[in-house]
Formate dehydrogenase major subunit (Kutzneria buriramensis), 188 residues
Amino acid sequence: MGVRRWIEGWPVYRQATQGDLLGRGAAAKSDGSARIEARTHSADRVVKSICPYCAVGCGQQIYVKDEKVVQIEGDPDSPVSRGRLCPKGSASKQLVTGSARTNKVLYRRPHGTDWEQLDLDTAMDMIADRVLKSRRDGWQWEVDGKRTRRTLGVASLGGATLDNEENYLLKKLFTALGAIQIENQARI
Ligand code: SF4
């Protein structure tokens, strides 16, 4: 490396000669920094979404490459969050791609000592059977001579990670089943 190039490599030289006297711009950038690319740079496309973690519902931009999620950032178009995500929301890529994520149905039978895998159709049928039985067993046509037509056999307790649409559907479903115990942890 020549002496001239060596001197030109000094940040203070660049500050003085490139109009960046406070050293807050390009003069302070190292070659290493100049080579760094944003993790979103190579994405094929961006999909709008909502953070799944809490009821605030911050907007997200999901960056996709080769049909895989490569990064999740805040959505500047969201009137709720205007591009911001809290630390939990910023880490939501882990929720989607983390190796600890369970993506098979696991079932532990009564008195079982270990989990076993079920296919989704079998599990859905088992849940539907249990809901129907509990609804029937807890059904009340009337109480103290007053018509109630309700069931105390099933209840719904939602969590703050449910979004508006999920809560809407839960309320519709459980009310249609005749349940009256429909709650959400975010209301407590
Ligand atoms: S967890 Fe954080 S980023 Fe996600 S919706 Fe709630 S406040 Fe927004």
